[in-house]
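User: Can you predict the 3D structure for this chain?
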Amino acid sequence: MSEPTLKSLEHKLDALLDQFQRLEQENQLLKAERSAWQAERAKLIKQNELARDRVEAMIVRLRAMEQSE
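Assistant: Here is the predicted structure, written as structure tokens:
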């Protein structure tokens, strides 16, 4: 192979390696963000369930108060 062809291939390989490293970093960032969103979602689901339980308990108490009157 000629020297210009080897240099061209070397530059292309360097560019591919740089792109690969950028994509690896982006992938790690996206995985971390996904994990954070999943944790937040789980927290919100739990809070929603607690709120639902409290509202249901209030309804039961109100109905009991209505029946005792």
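The radius of gyration is 30 Å. Residues 45 and 52 are 10 Å apart (CA to CA).
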